[in-house]
Design brief:
The protein is about 35% helix and about 25% strand. It is an alpha/beta fold and about 240 residues long. The protein folds into two domains: about 70 residues, Nucleotidyltransferase, domain 5 (2-Layer Sandwich), CATH 3.30.420; about 160 residues, ATPase, nucleotide binding domain (Nucleotidyltransferase, domain 5, 2-Layer Sandwich), CATH 3.30.420.40. The strands form two sheets. Strands 6-9-8-7-10-11 form a six-stranded mixed sheet, sandwiched between helices. A five-stranded mixed sheet has the order 3-2-1-4-5, with helices on both faces. Strand 1 and strand 2 form a beta hairpin. The chain starts with a strand and ends in a 5-residue tail after the last helix. The relative contact order is 0.17.
Amino acid sequence: MNLTLDFGNTLIKAGIFEQGDLVHFESHANFTQKKLENMLKKFRIEGAIASTVVNDSLPIENFLQKNYHFVKLNPGTVLPIKNHYETPGSLGMDRLAGISGANFIFPKKNVLVINMGTCITYDIVTSRAEYFGGNISPGIDMRLKALNTFTDRLPLVRKQFSNTLLGRSTSSAISSGVIMGAYFELEGFISAYRKKYKELKVLLTGGDAAIFETMIKSKIFAVPNLVLYGLNKILSVNDPN
């Protein structure tokens, strides 16, 4: 069994894999070493891998390093794909794990990964398991906060589903503008990439994916824990045995 950890900006996600199957999943706003140890009492893991975009994961990393075969995902980690990104040191590890997961789910296919978290990222992995880059735009919360922060009078609106084109109050106009604006962005990128990449598969993941899953007209596949699947695949190609 393998342990996979994704330290994000908002949540820490933990997954236990047996072979290629996710058999246990937990998500925490605050994930301590004690919580980890309690979880590991239920499973006999052999290896662990972590992807992090934050700095408070060191105690857990040190614990795993001492007790298991441990991999911390970094630009030098051996991958199941070829990474042609021009600035690999600046590439978010969650993006790298996501495209590795996409290649695991759809091997030998062109895949677009859309991760809807703090930012909305678009990444392509080709049928030859090659990655060249993608796009980054503000996430839903970031857009809502920006309207409030950079204006004098616009309120901070709570994130909620909206599929109306006509906001009839300032709050509903913001909801509509942010949600529908992101929706049209998604559809635009999907359409543009489908013209360039043959038989493109589209995977939607991230915390805000559920808002758009039913809205998008194009055929997509929702994979909530895509990053964890990618981490498990990366760990398998770094197995010392």
